[in-house]
Specification:
CATH class: Alpha Beta
Number of domains: 1
Number of helices: 6
CATH architecture: 3-Layer(aba) Sandwich
Strand order of the largest sheet: 5-4-3-6-7-8-9
Length: 195
């Protein structure tokens, strides 16, 4: 996808986020415990037909660039995001990429899995989530996947909240890709990713 097409899709996605109420302003406490003047609910986008399609289109090129063999993320928030990218990978005429998700803790019944889906023998993999603040949720998924013997090639999100997560991931050697970056006031811009 060329830069102009990418910008047009991202602009449509941002407009959709506003239309669906995925971007709200006020006083919020994030999962990280940090306070914020805005809240971004990526699930309102990934669970909408147009949003899922746009997000899959915008993030799949990074998955292809890093040649990932599987895409996953933390349950429950990343599940529709993983599904959007996985579905798009089955439509672009190249090799379909399977998906998985990581539970916060292993099930106490059945097989007792912490990782569900298609990850057996797959390397390298991508870890995705709708937002990246401090990267805490992303690191839970990264740890589970690496503990299972897999290499993480890229970490991706819809929105980087610019609250230290990107820097933490970069310092630890992980490639990071995002569609949008936001400042503290919630001004959202199309991200400029490396490479």
């Amino acid at each position: 996808m060329d830069d102009e097409a990418e910008r047009a899709k991202a602009k449509t996605l941002l407009s959709l986020a506003k239309d669906l109420g995925a971007l709200k302003f006020g006083d919020f406490t994030l999962a990280s415990g940090q306070k914020s003047k805005y809240y971004f609910d990526g699930r309102l986008l990934t669970l909408s037909p147009l949003g899922a399609n746009l997000i899959g289109d915008l993030l799949l090129p990074a998955m292809r660039k890093y040649r990932v063999s599987a895409i996953g993320g933390p349950a429950v928030g990343a599940v529709p995001l993983v599904t959007a990218i996985v579905m798009q990978s089955g439509l672009d005429g190249l090799n379909p990429i399977p998906g998985f998700f990581v539970r916060k803790e292993a099930k106490e019944h059945g097989l007792g899995n912490i990782i569900e889906g298609h990850l057996q023998g797959q390397n390298p993999v991508a870890i995705v989530d709708d937002t990246c603040s401090t990267a805490g949720s992303l690191y839970l998924a990264i740890k589970a996947v690496e503990d299972a013997g897999h290499e993480v090639a890229v970490v991706a999100s819809i929105l980087d909240r610019d609250q230290g997560g990107r820097e933490r991931l970069s310092n630890d050697g992980y490639a990071f890709h995002t569609i949008f970056r936001a400042d503290i006031a919630g001004q959202i811009q199309l991200a400029k990713n490396d490479g």
